[in-house]
Each structure stands twice: as C-alpha cells, then as structure tokens.
Specification:
With about 200 residues, the protein is mostly helical. It has two domains: about 1-55, Homeodomain-like (Arc Repressor Mutant, subunit A, Orthogonal Bundle); about 60-195, Tetracycline Repressor, domain 2. Helices cover about 70% and strands about 0% of the residues. It is built from eight helices and no strands. α4 packs antiparallel against α6.
Length: about 200
C-alpha cells in the first residue's frame, strides 16, 4: 500500500523536482527534457512526477512562477531598503542584475521560453505581473520626486528592456563579468538626465 504523503512531503518533492527541472530545462530546453529524465534525476520511478504535476508544462509553469516570485521579492526588498528615488532606482537595478547573474537558469526560463496556454496557470501569470510591477514602481518614485516625467509604464518597459539586454549579453559571454552592471549604471544616469522635467 503506497505511503500517504503529508503536505510537507508533497511540498518537499515538488521543490526538489522544480530545482532539477530548472537546471535541465535551461541547459537543454524544455522540449528536450522528458518526465522520465526528470524522474531519473531524482532517483524515483518514471511515474512518480505525475503524482505531483499533471505534465511537463505544469512543471515548467511552476518553475517559472517560482523564478518570477523570487525575482520580484529581490526587487521589492531592494526598493524597500533604500531611501530617496535615486537610491531606490540604483538599488532595484543592482538587485535585478544580481538576481540574473546568480540565478542564470531561472532567469533564462523566465524570459527565454513561452508558456503554452499561460491562462491555465494563474500563479505564473500573477508572478509575472508582480515582477513587471516592480519595474515601474521605482520609476513612479522618481516621478513623485520630480526627477523625471513621462509615462511610467512605458519608461519602466524601456528600462527593463535595457537591463535585460545587458544581462543576456553577459550571460551569453558577450560582455565580461560585471558588464551588465556597468551598462545599467550608465543607462540609469542617462535615463534620469534625459527624462528630467524641462525648466
């Protein structure tokens, strides 16, 4: 008779499976990874993962939602720990780069892969929206202090695209270690200067 799993058992196994999946998905691409390979990675029977997840897309959604949540928490913590719009902007950007270079597998899965039928995974959608919100929050801080003007959503996306591009170049080895951080610092200064209200 199979052992009855506690909520803790289920959570622990899901976490272990997601950790293995994050690495394998990022290294090989989700299409190249099978449920059998994930089971073998954890030393369990091929059918065991199906007790915890519906299928591979379900695992990918859980991995990506976890990544977006950790990412959002890192940015929110940076924003909450700084005082003044300039310091907040710097802290959030630095936290962004740090998260990406310290969690390259998660970062790649968050942004390099589409999620089939994303509407089936409300936790993933919510986590992605939370992460995006952090990229406009500190822009609004700067506007509230009169440091810049414009559409905060558009400026936030512009800033996000610039940081993301620099991070991807560094992760691909096309920038030296620390290159993304250097580019962020230059862009951050230029953004404030360029969007400062005109006298």
């Amino acid at each position: 008779m199979p052992r009855v799993l506690s909520d803790t058992d289920v959570a622990d196994f899901r976490e272990r499976l997601c950790e293995a999946a994050e690495r394998l998905f990022a290294e090989r691409g989700p299409d190249a990874v099978t449920m059998r390979q994930l089971a073998a990675e954890l030393g369990v029977s091929p059918m065991t993962p199906y007790r915890y997840f519906e299928d591979k897309d379900d695992i990918l959604a859980a991995v990506r939602a976890n990544g977006f949540t950790r990412f959002a928490i890192a940015l929110e913590t940076a924003r909450d720990g700084a005082r003044g719009a300039r310091a907040i902007g710097t802290a959030v950007g630095e936290a962004y780069v740090t998260f990406a270079v310290e969690n390259p597998h998660a970062y790649k899965l968050m942004f390099d892969f589409n999620q089939p039928h994303a509407e089936k995974y409300p936790e993933l959608v919510a986590a992605g929206q939370r992460a995006q919100k952090t990229m406009t929050g500190y822009i609004k801080d700067a506007m509230a202090e009169g440091l810049m003007e414009g559409d905060p959503e558009q400026i936030g996306l512009m800033n996000w695209a610039a940081i993301h591009g620099a991070v991807i170049l560094e992760l691909a080895g096309m920038l030296p270690p620390g290159g993304a951080r250097m580019i962020f610092r230059g862009f951050d200064t230029a953004l404030i200067r360029g969007l400062r209200p005109q006298d």
